Here is the input.
Amino acid sequence: MTKIILISGVPGTGKSSVSINLKKKLKNSVVLTSESFKKAIVGYDKKRKCKIIDVKIYSNELKKFLKKYHWDYVIIESLFAGEIKNKNIVSCFILRCNEKELFKRLKKRGYSKKKINENIEAELCNYCGEEAFENQKNIIEINTTRLNPKKTALKCLKYLQKK
Here is the structure.
């Protein structure tokens, strides 16, 4: 049975880098992103300059993917990962970051001041955590403010090995 690992957090918390590092540690694994299933992309938000993903369609496409391909681990990294429904989910990691560090990371990426503020507000409100707590079991929050992606991935791996 494929084990699904969810990695969620606002932009800049390290989802992509941590997922790649975790994939290197887990044999027969794959990383899926928000845009892995084109059918789930239902529009574009011009104001926020991002694609709109339908989580229900994404979850259905994930089921089809799991029937077609056989991986030991599927790592899903996405802002909305905590909302995904699937019986194979073993853990949901919520990556968190101090707002000052998050500001630096997002500014370095070239985000607009408005988009930076929106993401910092989402972090301060623990948007990703709240969504996960409504939908998942085995939720682990990791503060990435002072951790590099390799160390964060190792923390995830240690938790997974305990299970």
Strands lie at 3-8, 29-32, 41-45, 50-53, 73-77, 89-96, 139-143. Helices lie at 15-25, 55-68, 99-108, 113-124, 127-135, 149-162. The mean pLDDT is 96.
